[in-house]
Amino acid sequence: MKKLTASVVLILGLAAAGPADTLNLSFFQNATDNLFQTRFAERDQLSNVAFSYDKAFRPFSLFTDGQYSYLYRNSEVSYYAQDLGLDYLHSFNEKTAFYAAAKAGGAVYRSDYSDFNYLQLGSVAAVKSYLTPASILKLNYAFDYKSFRYTLFDHHSHLVNLSLDRYFESRTTVKAEAGWGYKYFIHPFLLSAAAVEEPVYGMSGNGMGRGSGRMGWRGGMFRPDGSGQGQGIQIASLSGLIAQGVGDWLGFRVSAVRQWTLTGENPFSVIEEFYQVENPSYDLYSWNGCGLSGLLTIEGPWNTQLKMGYTKSLKDFPGIEALNLEGASVGAVRQDRRNQWDARLVKDFSAFSVVLGYSYVDNHSNDRLFDWRGHFLTVGVAWNLNWGGEK
Amino acid sequence: MSTRKAMALAGLFVILGAGLALADDQAQASTQTRARSMFLDQNGDGINDFQRDHDNDGIPNCQDPDWTRPEDGTGYKNRFGWNGSDNQGGNRKGFHGGQEWSNASFRHGQGGLGGGVCDGTGPKGKANRKGRG
Questions:
Q1: Which residues are CB-neighbours of A333 under 8 A, at least 6 positions away?
Q2: How many whole angstroms separate alpha carbon A289 and alpha carbon A320?
Q3: Which residues of chain B does A46 touch, with a Cβ-Cβ cutoff of 8 Å?
Q4: Taking all residues of chain A, what is their mean pLDDT, rounded to a whole number?
Q5: Nearest CA distance, A208 vs chain B (angstrom)
Q6: Which residue of A70, A362, B63, B115 is most buried, as measured by CB atoms within 10 A?
Q7: Gap between the Cα atoms of A332 and B104, Å rounded
Q8: Which chain A residues contact residue B41 at CB under 8 A?
Q9: DSSP-assigned letter for residue A6
């Protein structure tokens, strides 16, 4: 609670520190009946307070983000994350512009999760060009480096995306995107070193991690045979989107993505996703498969907006063996089939926005631990404070 | 120069000036008509971006200092943010029909196509943070 108070004081201090171009403050209260997203569901609530500050020195802009998340039942997983960066925009002409950004940041977790404290360096370079008034070509490159307290997770990654958007006067949007990415774990996994260094989390005596609130319930995050040594994972993806507006107030969207693992596989023994808490075992590089998504957007009266979406995904996790509840291999790579329903209502006022969100996830997996369902509720308010007129 | 010749020359200038002014008005009207008929949907939800977030910076029009509220009584949601005093918009905002280049719009648009209600508030990811690569 002290950290929450300190965060509020920090935010108010920044707000009072002097003129800024944009300051965004938000407070969100989240609740779920399945925080750790396993078949042994555990309820919790999260309070999230965040700020985002931008100061423009054209063509540069300074930005910083900070957020503190407090978990009520699993308070030892609470965390604070902060980043600071500088970006640059150069428009060659009215059709084409170049953007670059560099940032540094990190996250600090409380005791149960402190091995995943990290420092991060990142950069982005992008070129965006209007081929016609209604066609946009964009090339984007992102570099990311993360150094964890538990050094076996240290990695750097490179991600390139090329996208083409086309808008038609019939209010139809067509987007296509191709992506390529490479993630490299910097420290080769050595079995002897890991036996000494690897933290052993796990069951707290009530079985299968139920209620333990710990990650790596099977004991150890990396594979004990050491087969995932210092490797890189290379992925490629194709995605497409078609959206159609009906009048000014109604929009439909259908999108699909297909991702392949070109080389490498996960060096972990288990992949986990937690609600609102980043887990280093799961990210864009940890899976291959496909997804299909639909979204309905309604622009309502009195500055309200309602979005309702459904996503179906099928993901394989290369290098991750599916296990039964006794911990024995079922002789297959872990495969998840997920159905997810989302709804989000936003009401904009002249100085702030109120958000209400709900999601339901039904995840089927051949690894029985990850055969789970969960409800997720979010209520929040966000302020956009601006000084100095033009951004 | 005789008075008659001077008057004829003056008349010629008036006609020429009026023609140029009319042509300029038509060009401006053409530019605004083109912008008003344009559809941009960078977040891919089927709704014209000018409807809610004209510059795609993540800040709703009604909270965005870049947004010019129309003085025609149509409220915040009137599209395009072009009012009578913004006739330079065709040059400043340029080719892409009313959207100005901004660092925030690039920063805000780092995400991929994604799925569902793809705004960072879902069950995965760290809540409420804007994508910055």
A1: A316, A317, A318, A319, A320, A321, A322
A2: 14
A3: 127
A4: 86
A5: 22
A6: B115
A7: 45
A8: 167, 171, 173, 243, 245, 251
A9: H
Alpha-carbon span B84 to B22, nearest angstrom: 17
Q: Tell which residue, A1, A2, A54, has the closest CA to residue A25.
A: A54
List Cα–Cα distances, B27 to B22, B23, B33, B80, B90, in angstroms: 9, 6, 10, 18, 10
Judge contact between A270 and A320, C-beta under 8 A: yes
In this prediction, residues B63-90 reach a mean pLDDT of 46
Which chain A residues are within 8 Å of B99, Cβ to Cβ?
none
Per-residue model confidence as pLDDT tens digits over A57-86: 888 999 999 999 999 999 999 999 999 999
Locate tokens 């892409």: which residue?
B96
pLDDT score for A13: 54
Contact between A177 and B110 under an 8 Å Cβ cutoff? The reply is no
Query: What does each C-alpha distance from A146 to A257, B28, B96 come to in angstroms?
Result: 26, 52, 37
Task: Answer yes or no: is the ipTM higher than 0.90.
Answer: no
Question: Which among A99, A167, A255 is the nearest to B106, CB-wise?
Answer: A99
Distance CA B28, CA B35 (A): 11
Angle of CA points A318, A324, A330, to nearest 5°: 55
B127–A48 C-beta distance less than 8 A? yes
- Copy the structure tokens of residue A349: 């006022």
